[in-house]
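Priority: medium. Attachment 1 of 2:
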C-alpha cells in the first residue's frame, strides 16, 4: 500500500496547506481533515483505542460502483493512514440475491483500486455466534418469538406520528421463546410463519426500535452455508454483531443508517461479548480469533454523481434489459465499467479526495470525475497519433518509396518517458475535419493553397483537391517544404496551425469506440411525468468507427492508456484489443465539452 503509516496525532495547525495536485501521497494523507479522521485522531490521542480497525461490508448482490469507491477509500484509507487494519466482510445474510460471482468480482475490484484487506470474512462465518447471541437475548427477556404475519407486523408498527402496539406474543415466557426459536432453527416452521423480534419499545419515536425483527425463516440455499440454516439474521443484528466480533473500532457507513444507530448500539450492548465470551466459542472452534470489542458507528454522506444512476436495482436492469453491453460496459458507473473505459485507480482516488467526507448530501458534477481522469492521464499517459476520420494526403514532391523514421517524445512534460520512432512517408492519413474547402472565419488548419504544419515532420501546402463523381473529397495532393523539416533553418517558420497525421503504409487500422455519457440528462433518477431512467439514455453514448493508429499504439498491451494527440485520452480495450486488431475506447476528451453545451 502506498501511504506510509504516520503518527496518530497531527496538529492541524502544523499541516501545510497544499492542493491535491502538488501533494506527495504522504502530504495528501496529512491534509485530510474530515470529521471522521478527526474522531479517529482523538480516539488515539485519548487512549480510547491503541489501534484502528475498520471494515468494508459489501453485500455480494452486484458489482461495485463508483459510490462504493468512496466507502472503500475511507475504510481502507483510514486504516492505512493510521497504521490500522481493514477487513473485507461480505454481508451475506440475504441468500436469495447473493452469488459467488460477485464475491470474486468485488475482491478483484478492491485489488485493482490498490487496497488489500487484513482478513476476509463473511457474515455467514458468524451464523453460529449470532444464533447463540439471539438465545442470550431471549434468556435476558430482550427478544421474543412473534407469530404475526408480515402484514400484521406492519399494522402493529404504527406510523411516524402514531405509536405502534405491542405484539400479542410479546409476553411469551423465556422457556416458550427458547423452545420456539430452537424449533425455528430446526426447520419446523414455514417461511414467514414466525420471526424472532427484539423487545425494545413499540412507542419509540424511532421506528427502527419498535421491536424490530432479528431473525426470519427463509428456507433458501446459502452460497456459503448451503442448507444448514433455515433461519437468517436480519441486517441490523448481523451487521452490528459482525463489527463487534471483529473488534471494529470505527464502523463507517452512509447516512441512511443514522436512524439505525440506536438499534446498532442496542444489539452490541445487549449481547455484550465482553461479558459473554462463551458466545464466541464457535469462532474459536473454527479457528477465528476472539477480537470482540465495542464498535462505534459513524455515518457520512453518500457519493452522488449526476448523469448516472447508482442504485443496484437500476444497474441490474440496465444489464438485464441489454440497454448496455454488460456489467463492464465502458459507460457503466461500475468499477469494472470505469476500468474498461480507461479510468485509473489514481483518478478515482483523486476524485474521492476532492469530494471529501462530510455529513452534507450533495451531487457531484460528472465533469469533476472526468477532470480527475484527465489530470491523471495528462501527467502519465504517453502520447500517440491516431486518425479517427481519415482523409488521404499525398506529398507529391517525395519519392514513391520515401520512408523515414521520425523521433517523437512520448510525453511533452516528462523526458523520462523516452522517445519513439514514427514512420513518415509520401502518403499520409490526416483527419478529414482538419481540411476545409471553404473555411469558416478563424480557421487555422488546412485549406486549398494553404499551409499547415504536420506535427514533427515539417510544413506542407495543399495544391490539389481530388473529388469523386459524387463531389466528395477523396484525396488531397500537396508538397512538403524541404526547408521546414526538423533541424532545418525554416523549421520554425510560422504557420497558423499544426495537425497530426499517420503514414498510410504503416498505420494500423483500428476500431475506435467513441463513448460518451450514458444519460443525456443530469438527473436520470427523476421519475416525474411517468418517466424512468430508460427514457433518459443518451442515444449518442456509443459510436464505433474505423480509424488508424500508429504502430506504437497498436502494439500496446490491453489497458494501456494514451493521449491521442488532439483527440483525447484512449485506452486499449481490456477485452477486445489485440495488436493485430487494435480496439481503443475513448476514456475522456481533452477538455470538457458538456458544461459548454448549455
Ligand atoms: P444495496 O444495499 O441497495 O444492495 P448498497 O449500495 O448499499 O446497495 P452495499 O453492498 O450494501 O451496497 O454497500 C457496501 C458499502 O458501500 C456500504 O457501507 C454502503 O454504505 C457503501 N456505499 C454504497 N453506496 C455508496 C455511495 N453511493 N457512496 C458512499 N458509500 C456507498
Ligand atoms: Mg446496503
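Attachment 2 of 2:
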Amino acid at each position: 500500500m502506498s501511504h506510509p503509516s504516520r503518527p496518530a496525532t497531527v496538529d492541524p495547525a502544523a499541516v501545510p496547506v497544499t492542493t491535491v495536485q502538488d501533494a506527495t501521497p504522504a502530504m495528501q494523507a496529512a491534509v485530510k481533515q474530515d470529521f471522521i479522521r478527526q474522531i479517529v485522531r482523538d480516539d488515539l490521542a485519548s487512549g480510547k483505542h491503541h489501534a484502528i480497525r475498520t471494515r468494508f461490508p459489501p453485500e455480494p448482490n452486484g458489482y461495485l460502483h463508483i459510490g462504493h469507491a468512496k466507502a472503500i477509500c475511507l475504510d481502507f484509507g483510514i486504516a492505512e493512514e493510521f497504521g490500522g487494519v481493514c477487513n473485507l466482510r461480505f454481508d451475506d445474510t440475504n441468500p436469495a440475491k447473493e452469488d459467488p460471482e460477485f464475491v470474486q468480482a468485488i475482491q478483484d475490484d478492491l485489488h485493482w483500486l490498490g487496497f488489500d484487506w487484513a482478513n476476509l470474512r463473511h457474515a455467514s462465518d458468524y451464523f453460529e455466534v449470532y444464533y447463540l447471541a439471539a438465545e442470550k437475548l431471549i434468556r435476558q427477556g430482550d427478544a421474543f418469538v412473534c407469530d404475526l404475519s408480515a402484514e400484521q407486523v406492519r399494522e402493529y408498527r404504527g406510523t411516524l406520528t402514531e405509536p405502534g402496539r405491542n405484539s400479542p406474543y410479546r409476553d411469551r415466557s423465556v422457556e416458550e421463546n427458547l423452545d420456539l426459536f430452537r424449533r425455528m432453527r430446526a426447520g419446523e416452521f414455514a417461511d414467514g410463519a414466525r420471526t424472532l423480534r427484539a423487545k425494545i419499545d413499540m412507542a419509540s419515536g424511532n421506528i427502527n426500535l419498535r421491536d424490530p425483527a432479528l431473525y426470519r425463516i427463509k428456507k433458501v440455499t446459502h452460497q456459503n452455508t448451503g442448507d444448514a440454516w433455515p433461519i437468517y439474521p436480519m441486517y441490523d443484528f448481523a451487521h452490528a454483531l459482525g463489527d463487534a466480533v471483529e473488534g471494529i473500532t470505527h464502523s463507517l457507513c452512509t447516512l441512511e443508517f443514522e436512524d439505525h444507530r440506536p438499534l446498532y448500539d442496542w444489539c452490541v450492548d445487549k449481547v455484550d461479548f465482553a461479558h459473554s465470551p462463551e458466545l464466541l466459542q464457535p469462532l474459536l472452534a473454527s479457528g477465528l480469533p476472539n477480537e470482540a470489542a465495542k464498535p462505534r458507528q459513524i455515518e457520512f454522506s453518500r457519493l452522488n454523481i449526476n448523469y448516472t444512476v447508482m442504485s443496484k436495482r437500476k444497474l441490474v436492469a440496465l444489464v438485464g434489459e441489454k440497454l448496455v453491453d454488460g456489467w463492464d460496459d465502458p459507460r457503466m458507473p461500475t468499477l469494472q465499467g470505469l476500468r474498461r473505459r480507461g479510468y485509473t485507480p489514481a483518478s478515482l482516488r483523486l476524485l474521492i479526495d476532492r469530494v471529501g467526507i462530510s455529513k452534507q448530501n450533495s451531487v457531484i458534477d460528472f465533469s469533476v470525475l472526468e477532470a480527475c481522469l484527465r489530470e491523471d492521464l495528462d501527467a502519465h499517459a504517453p502520447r500517440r497519433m491516431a486518425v479517427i476520420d481519415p482523409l488521404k494526403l499525398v506529398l507529391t514532391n517525395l519519392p514513391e518509396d520515401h520512408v523515414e523514421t521520425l523521433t517523437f517524445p512520448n510525453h511533452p512534460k516528462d523526458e523520462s518517458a523516452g522517445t519513439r520512432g514514427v514512420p513518415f512517408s509520401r502518403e499520409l492519413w490526416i483527419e478529414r475535419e482538419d481540411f476545409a474547402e471553404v473555411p469558416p472565419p478563424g480557421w487555422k488548419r488546412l485549406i486549398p493553397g494553404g499551409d499547415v504544419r504536420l506535427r514533427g515532420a515539417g510544413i506542407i501546402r495543399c495544391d490539389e483537391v481530388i473529388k469523386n463523381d459524387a463531389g466528395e473529397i477523396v484525396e488531397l495532393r500537396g508538397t512538403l517544404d524541404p526547408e521546414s523539416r526538423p533541424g532545418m533553418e525554416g523549421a520554425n517558420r510560422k504557420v497558423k496551425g499544426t495537425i497530426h497525421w499517420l503514414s498510410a503504409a504503416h498505420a494500423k487500422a483500428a476500431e475506435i469506440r467513441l463513448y460518451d455519457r450514458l444519460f443525456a440528462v443530469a438527473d436520470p433518477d427523476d421519475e416525474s411525468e411517468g418517466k424512468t431512467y430508460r427514457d433518459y439514455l443518451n442515444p449518442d453514448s456509443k459510436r464505433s468507427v474505423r480509424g488508424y493508429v500508429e504502430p506504437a499504439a497498436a502494439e500496446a498491451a490491453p489497458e494501456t492508456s494514451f493521449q491521442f494527440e488532439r483527440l483525447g485520452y484512449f485506452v486499449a480495450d481490456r477485452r477486445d484489443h489485440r495488436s493485430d486488431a487494435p480496439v481503443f475506447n475513448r476514456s475522456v476528451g481533452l477538455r470538457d465539452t458538456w458544461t459548454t453545451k448549455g
